[in-house]
Amino acid sequence: MRNLLRRIFLADLLQGLWVTFRYQHPRNIYTEQYPLERPPVAERYRGAPRLNTNPATGETLCIACNLCALACPENLIVVGWQRDDVTRRKVLTTFTYDLSRCMFCGLCEDACPTDALELTQDFELASYSREGAIWDRNRLEQGPTPAHYTH
Fold first, then answer.
1. Are 117 and 48 in contact (CB under 8 A)?
2. Residue 60 sits in a domain of what CATH number?
3. 115 and 50 Cβ atoms separated by less than 8 Å
4. CA distance 49 to 97
């Protein structure tokens, strides 16, 4: 008899609605004002890549050793270089990083002997085309440029 009354008066539905509305009280609601206030990011978060430069000379720290490309499980890093005849060293000519396939594992960052490649804490990586997700050397040296919103 009790089970029949619970079905007729929809007791389970009303109990579920009570749980839902209990959490809708204004003191329990938490809203982030996202574009104006940046949310806190975890300390070890890995986001947009950056190719670091030497602050004194402005030259890139990359020595074109290709270890980052070899460590990448997705094969999305392409390092182009040529040998300098005077110093007999490799000189970085191109550096391409495909963000559309990156899983942000950090293996490229760990493999770099000069700390030239770094995964920053920027998380705004949206673009309107697939070509926007392929970053070249200039974009990587510039680093991520988060949008600044105003009222």
1. no
2. 3.30.70.3270
3. no
4. 8
